[in-house]
Amino acid sequence: MRSMIAAAIDMGVGVMNGGRSTRWSLDEKNYSQGWWVPLGVVVVAAATWGSLGFVEGGCQPGPRGGCVAADGYELRSWVVYLASMPTLFVVVTGLTADRWPPVLGIAAGGAACGLYTLTQGHTIPHLIMAAALFALSITAPTLAWRRRRAARAE
Is-annotated flag, keyword Membrane (predicted)? Predict the structure, then answer.
């Protein structure tokens, strides 16, 4: 007997289309959608802005140990917390896709956020963060180009 969760997963996320429910998945058609570009930029920008709060404000020991945001940077710590899973999903998709919209979103977001990071300061943590963002913006298109080139060669 199948559980209700398994049945819901098999049905997919339904979208009403003239009274009918259609199945949604991350297939070739969805990877080619233009909304991946602004999604990549916004998600990388949110994660960068939140992470810069830890770079600029530092960590303070929390009441139960661990690292909490310094005074004045609490909002940024919440942004990092809330943007962590979307960032992971969008970045992994941008690094593993062979379609250009997700890749361009990650590349544009990485380049823009790397420049923004450099405008905020030139300390060692700022430079490391900017270097990681620039590396991300170069790596995504390179991997997609190699994947597409390998697919054409077969």
Answer: yes
In the chain, the largest separation of any two C-alpha atoms, in whole Å, equals: 60
Q: Which of 136, 137, 141, 50 is nearest to 99 (CA)?
A: 141
Residue with tokens 């994947």: 147
Whose CA is closest to 44, among 3, 79, 5, 8?
A: 79
The CA-CA-CA angle for residues 35, 81, 102, to 5°, reads 20
- Tokens 């969008």 correspond to 90
Q: Please, how many CA atoms are within 13 Å of residue 42, restricted to the half-sphere of its CB?
A: 6
Burial (CB count within 10 angstroms: exposed 0-12, middle 13-18, buried 19+), residue 103: buried
Helix (H) or strand (E) holding 119: helix 100-120
Cα distances from 13 to residues 4, 26, 27, 89, 98, in angstroms, run 14, 11, 14, 17, 24
